[in-house]
Amino acid sequence: MLKRKYIDLIIVLIVVLAVVSYTYTSFYSDDDTVSIGYLPSDHDAALFVANASGMYRDAGLNVELHEYNNGGDLISAMTSGTVDVGYVGVTPVLSSISKDVPIKIVAGAQLEGSGLVTNEPDVTSIEDLKGKSIATPGQSSIQYMLLQYDLKKHNMTMSDITSPSMKVASMNDALKTGSIDAMLTYEPYMSIAEKQNNMTVVDTSHEILENHPCCAVVVTDKFANRHPDKVKKIAEIHKNATEKLENDPYGCVKYLPRNIVANETLEGQILANMSWVSDLNDTYKQDVRDFISTEKDLGVLNQTFSDEKLFYTA
């Protein structure tokens, strides 16, 4: 009987220890790791520089990076709680905020940086692509919005073309094989298509919509409320990494994922020509407001937002 009591006591202790261990892991260990989502793009180069050069580690932050094909998928991961911070296009960010998804813009990442590319040398305008296929990363992407805007500028609509959604890394091959007629894609794939594959850039996004905001650093409200100190560190690191990119673009190529670096010299040129943004200054905020007005005119959005709903403030 006594032996049985000891056995029961041991079982209870094991259960208690298991519960304590699980509780500690759930509320402390996992909570210490910052999950950051990104796209396989030069637009997110500041994130790659910060991570590979040890900036997060030096600031005492334990981060995990997760790659997504497009901004819609990344925002869905933030909504579900899988991702705390995202480097993502402003179009899916604004669309999500319009649906009351609790996220905020912490900083801009860059402006422009996309382009309309075709394998047909005689094409000089999007008007020449009427009745043809123009691929984008998806309907939630900023590239899809730029496609809509470019069509409208030329008195065309989406009904004048077909627009399949594709993984960006697959678009160049699809263009080479004739599976699609054109693509509206982001860097480095635009420059790879032009410089290495001898394709034609019909319009850069600078020519489509000058000075438009593209990617931003975004944080979930839940993470920001729990960890304002970490959000502050992440914003500071983003600014430092961006300055490093601006000061030494060719030297920063080594920090980028190998799957987006087709040629180191070309990659350095892309980074050197990018319009970087390192914080949340008044100019960038106004760029976002102007972009919201443009999306309203297109029917992409049906509302405007207060700064409190858009931008993170500590």
Report on the architecture of this protein.
With 314 residues, this protein is an alpha/beta fold. The chain is 48% helix and 16% strand. The chain has a 5-stranded mixed beta sheet, with helices on both faces. It starts with a helix and ends with a helix. Residues 11-30 have low confidence and may be disordered.
Give a concise summary:
The protein has 314 residues and is of the alpha/beta class.
Question: Within the CATH hierarchy, at the fold level, what is the topology of the largest domain?
Answer: D-Maltodextrin-Binding Protein, domain 2
- CA radius of gyration: 23 Å
- Work out the helix count: 14
CATH class of the largest domain: Alpha Beta
Residue fraction in strands: 15-25%
Number of individual domains: 2
What spatial order of strands do you see in the largest sheet?
2-1-3-10-4
Span between termini: 61 Å
Helix and strand element order: HEHHEHEHEEEEHHEHEHEHHHEHH
Strand-helix topology:
Layout: H1 2-29, E1 33-38, H2 45-52, H3 55-58, E2 62-67, H4 71-80, E3 85-89, H5 90-98, E4 103-108, E5 110-111, E6 114-118, E7 134-135, H6 142-153, H7 168-177, E8 182-186, H8 189-196, E9 200-204, H9 205-208, E10 215-220, H10 221-226, H11 228-247, H12 264-273, E11 275-276, H13 282-298, H14 307-310
Parallel strand pairs: 1-2, 1-3, 7-8
Antiparallel strand pairs: 3-10, 4-10, 5-11, 6-8, 6-9
Helix pairs in contact: 2-11
